[in-house]
Design brief:
The complex is a heterodimer of chains A (about 110) and B (about 120). Chain A is an all-beta fold. Chain A contains no helices and eleven strands. In chain A, strands 2, 4, 5, 6, 9, 10 and 11 form a seven-stranded mixed sheet that branches. A four-stranded antiparallel sheet of chain A has the order 1-3-8-7, with no helix packed on it. Chain A starts with a strand and ends with a strand. With about 120 residues, chain B is an all-beta fold. Chain B contains no helices and eleven strands. In chain B, a hairpin with a 4-residue loop joins strand 7 and strand 8. Helix content of chain B is about 0%, strand content about 55%. The chains are: A mainly beta (about 110), B mainly beta (about 120). Chains A and B meet through strand 5 and strand 10 of A and strand 10 of B.
Chain lengths: ~110, ~120
């Protein structure tokens, strides 16, 4: 199975900050990397699919980049509603696997 | 508009069988696949298994011996059955719709299942 490693596990930041979350795959997953946002008590919400494609309705302050094994999610200017946990997810090969998450908290 | 909704018992006794239903609308079960993902409290997400448009199934190898996924296309429902439940099976169980080459795009609200006597 492909292992997905996210860093950092916790990130403290302030409203207005630019933040970068990292995700590393244990083997090449091409471009098939998604980012999900999850708030407490809610289902994961698809933000970005296939590395850098913004899901419909997601604000443009979210962006993704990377290829192969190393990927990043960038939030250009944090808003209060962005404080949540973010998971990366590979759908290049079965079984599909998730990272362990980065919790973005208010500094 | 695609909607998925999980239903089932909130409490299951150890060693018993869990049965969950995912009711789907706006998403054809014969053209798409639906999967189950679970999340223990405060932890990460684990893909459990899924059923494809042709009715075939795939399971996480760690759960394969205990897990069964089926469907009733006439009712737009997907079913999960998992036996021999233990306390570490306590989790929120989500059903999710797979969009080809876009990953899990559609999610139910999740249902909390607690395994306890």
């Amino acid at each position: 199975d492909i292992q997905m490693t996210q860093s950092p596990s916790v990130l403290s930041a302030s409203v207005g900050d630019r933040v970068t979350l990292n995700c590393k795959a244990s083997q090449n997953i091409n471009k098939y990397l998604n980012w999900y946002q999850q708030k407490l008590g809610e289902a994961p919400k698809l933000l970005i699919y296939n590395t850098n494609n913004l899901q419909t309705g997601i604000p443009s302050r979210f962006s993704g980049s990377g290829s192969g094994t190393d990927f990043t999610l960038t939030i250009s200017s944090l808003q209060p509603e962005d404080f949540a946990t973010y998971f990366c997810f590979q759908h290049n090969s079965w079984p599909f696997t998730f990272g362990s998450g980065t919790k973005l908290e208010i500094k | 508009q695609v909607q998925l909704k999980e239903s089932g018992p909130g409490l299951v006794q150890p060693s018993q069988t869990l049965s969950l239903t995912c009711t789907v609308s706006g998403f054809s079960l014969t053209s798409n696949s639906v999967h189950w993902v679970r999340q223990p409290p405060g932890k990460g997400l684990e893909w459990m298994g899924g059923i494809w448009g042709d009715g075939s199934t795939d399971y996480n190898s760690a759960l394969k011996s205990r897990l069964s996924i089926s469907r009733d296309t006439s009712k737009s429902q997907v079913f999960l059955k998992m036996n021999s439940l233990q306390t570490d099976d306590t989790a929120i169980y989500f059903c999710t719709g797979l969009r080809p080459r876009r990953g899990f795009a559609y999610w139910g609200q999740g249902t909390l299942v607690t395994v306890s006597s």
